[in-house]
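=== RUN LOG ===
request id: a7f3
mode: sequence -> structure
chains: 1
length: 316
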Amino acid sequence: MILITGGMGFIGIRTARALAGRDDVVLGYHRSVRSQEELQSLIPAKVETVRLDVTSPYSVARAMAQFRPDSIIHLAVPHLGVMPPAEESLANVQGLMNILEAACSAGAERVSLASSVAVYAGLTGGPFAEDRALPVESSSPTSAMKKAEEVLALHHADRTGLDLRVLRIGVTYGPLYHTMANLVSKLTHLAVRGKLPGELSSGWTEQRLGGMDLIHVDDCAGAIAAIHSAAKTRHRVYNVGGGASISAKAVLAAVEAAVPGAALPDELRQSSAGEGGMSDGYMDISRARDEFGAVPRYDINSGIRQYADWLREHEL
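=== RESULT ===
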């Protein structure tokens, strides 16, 4: 049995879907929960659910005692920007340590930790391989938190002997994405619906939208499932991305092809006139490809087309 923290998130749901055919899955959630009918439609297999606050060692211990999972995929993170820096840091570290300690105490086989492409921020001369030295400085909370979590988790595993797998995940888009912090998903919503959810407004720049390592959520979930399920791995850190740098121009063209005639902002069209971003600012995915056959099925055109089609039929 596999426990997925953050199991109701869009990566968690798709990862559970990828795993459900080969193992029993428990979706850990903190605040939001989906109905059994919705889960059944999203994951065509039986899954268990458990309320789980990873920042509470008692909550984690109860979940472990109730379900006795053999392994854990740790995807849960606090919502971006809702806490001051100190509280956010403590929540991330406390949650991580509670999961690692619980795994060791319960004799779990392994833990896979979700990290981010953001750890490479500030580097030049990609594509970025997993053994690349990372800068101490961080340009975003995600970059800082994920680098800190990697250091602490790997050190914990060295001292305890826990099988730890670090997954550096690229910019992920696709069905069920809801925070709209991801600009590619934000743009696709705008094209399909003609407006953004809630009070969100567009604020596009070529630099922010171009030069990204993008991966469709189904490809991301498939890679996570493959790496986590392997009995043994050659490495402890794996890049999970699209393996290419996608420019603003390419994203805009893919959206316009998927949603012909979409009313997109003039400033986006103007800012996307050039390629933008770093042409080599993406992750080297050869480790995951060579060891697990984790090759993205979706390129930017087919991925956005699938996402747009899905949005036409669903709320998210």
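=== NOTES ===
DSSP finds twelve helices and nine strands in the chain.
The radius of gyration is 19 Å.
=== END ===
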